[in-house]
Amino acid sequence: MSIQKNQEYIVDIIDNGFEGEGIAKIDNFTIFIPETIKGEKVRVLIVKVLSSHGFGKVIEILEKSQARQDVDCNTYKRCGGCNLRHVKYEETLKMKQNAVQSLVNKTLKNKLQIKETVGMENPLHYRNKAQYPIGINKKGEPVIGVFANRTHEVIPIDNCLIQNKKSEEIAKFIIEFIKEKYNINDEIVIDKFGKPHFLRTKDSFNISHSGNYVVIAVSRFNIGIDIQRMEKNNQLVAERNFHQNECTYINEGEDENVKTQRFYEVWTVKEAYLKNVGIGLRKPLNSFEVNFAEGKAKIMDNPGYEILQMKLDERYIMSVCADIRDKELNIEEVAF
Q1: Is the pTM of this model over 0.70?
Q2: Which run of H or E residues covers position 228?
Q3: If you average pLDDT over every residue of the chain, what do you get?
Q4: Is 60:42 a contact under the CB 8 Å cutoff?
Q5: How crowded is residue 123: how many other Cβ atoms within 10 Å of its Cβ?
């Protein structure tokens, strides 16, 4: 039988894949079907066919698994943030155990038995990192939320069940602050390197967070900002990723505290610079040098940037990489 796109089939889900998608076979041809569970019988529509496998979409669930539950999120089917809310939590732990077991069995001659996955007491609002896209809806109103699955359409979410509640409050506060403070009412889009920017206005912004701080830099020119909590002098990271002269600068510190501060001085300037130019870590960290010879950080062989660096308290250090045409750099603390 030749599997055809836009044709319907009735299939048995024989397993679940690494991301939780159901796996079926049609004449030994593998079909991946999201939102299905091992043991179910479903009617599917084939939406894509490749040489080795295909993809299907559920039309009807003919026989449900006992592990299936009602979805508790209104945007689950459109959102690309999570993909197992239709499965009981206890079953998702077994699925994760089986995924690891399968990977181990493929690579080891002497098979190992993977222990059961350790679950959470409360599997809600557990994420400790947040990245929110921002856009304009069809009414021209600003929205903040998550990207729809496999698109750049922003799905507004008032209450994400896996995101930390405080993260949601901070995200909404940040975008409102930017728009009100600088009178900007524009859509925020993501470029091919993952950098957010306004669609129509020339203003540029950048955001960073660490521990207790969220920092924002706004400019008429490209700008980058980075903040880090100074925890330890990671010598191995420096040796593997920094320029040789930067490693020398760090190691010449008179004690471990100074070496630690110097490590984060270099690290935050590099991050801020890469965020300014907008290509992130696609540019190797050791391909350019941050120099502190004159008591102030500067990017060697690239005089077009101004570096502002400061400690917010004894534990945090922040660096801003601005265009040299920025004649004035102002810092404002906003209570939240």
Answers
A1: no
A2: strand 223-229
A3: 84
A4: yes
A5: 12
